[in-house]
Amino acid sequence: MKEVIATDRAPQAIGPYSQGIRAGGFVFFSGQIPLDPATGQVRGENIGEQTELVMENIEGMLTAAGLGFEDVVKTTIFLVDLSHFAVVNGIYGRRFPTSPPARSAVEVKGLPRGALVEIEVIARCR
Q: Which residue spans within the chain are E strands per DSSP?
């Protein structure tokens, strides 16, 4: 059994996927790029601004599922330039002050709509 998680506090899907799926005691959230939920356009001129928006979008999806950052158990960070990792790590780390989730971070050749960062999360259900 699976349940679709959807919210207007995060960008609507730009393809055939759901914002999140609750299944098997977890919620699997699609990767978030820095799309403004109101306009559907990329927002942020630099990696810091883009990462802040990505984390806000993730918070919106978690809230829609009745969860918070403390429920996140795994994340994957995709960066077009791994030299941005320190900036992303600082912004990301503020959301996980204790017991941070498992994480992978990889450099990729490109991301949708020219984004500099994408983050996906898996959270446990309460």
A: 3-5, 20-23, 26-29, 72-79, 102-107, 117-124
pLDDT in tens, 58-94: 999 999 999 999 999 999 999 999 999 999 999 999 9
Alpha-carbon torsion (76, 77, 79, 81), positive or negative:
negative
Q: What CATH number does residue 100 fall under? A: 3.30.1330.40
Domain that holds residue 19: 3-124
If one counts the domains in the chain, the total is 1
User: Does this model's pTM top 0.85?
Assistant: yes
Residue with tokens 């990696």: 47
Determine how many CB atoms are found less than 10 A away from the CB of residue 118: 20
Using CA atoms, how far apart are residues 56 and 69, in angstroms rounded to an integer?
Answer: 11
